[in-house]
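Mods, move this if it's the wrong board.
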Amino acid sequence: MTRSDDGQASLLDNRQPEAGRRFDAFAVLFDPTTFRHIERLGIGAGARCWEVGAGGTSVVSWLARKAGPSGRVLATDIDTSWQTAEPAVSAEPAAPAEPAAPVEVRRHDIGADEPPAERFDLVHARLVLVHVPDRDRALRTMTDALRPGGHLLVEDADPALQPLLCPDEHGPAQELANRLRHGFRALLKERGADLSYGRKLPRLLREAGLERVEADAYFPLTSPACTALETATVQQIRATLVEAGLATDEDIDRHLDNVAQGSMDLATAPLISAWGRKP
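Not the wrong board. Structure tokens:
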């Protein structure tokens, strides 16, 4: 998701070339978790789905296949340039032969715009709300868009639960990696991100009036996708880290070399998935 009204775009802009590599890494890391939850909620043929802050193609395409030709998928974001990009690499095998639901792509700011007029069986947002200044309004908008019996699935990171890139900090390379990760967190917080938002989701869904609220967490400790995500992220925020005095170009070059060697275990913040049903 790219923000254009609060400075966020200068940090993680979907239009930067590294953004596509980050979306690919997110797909490999988190699509299996997302798909498992949606399957569990019983979303299938004929479902009407809203993917909020889509930022990529893998979840949208998968939902279209699940909903089938009798369903519908609305995909929204502030920046919809992703719709013309190559499909993200997902850990879920593609099924191109399956008939798919029609997909509408629409520009929409979940923290400022009114909800769509229609009502949905599923509303889903992943790694979106932590960056939205008016998170309360965004959650109300998504809840209001549910039909009775519809499900809301919100998945967001909680960097404050696990703030390290290298939880096993046993040498200089890991120490440098964690110092740069702290700088990244500081930049996010400066731009209004709530770094402890994920843990609040179950309570917030209950307060929004949803029932049967549950939540879990996924926490990859090391994988090639974590390495790819770190490389793309650092390349994307490099100039901002240097301008803010949080790192030097030499620090970043050394860190990227360390990452490229493949000898470090790189983690992500826990992804908290929370879901509930509208009465």
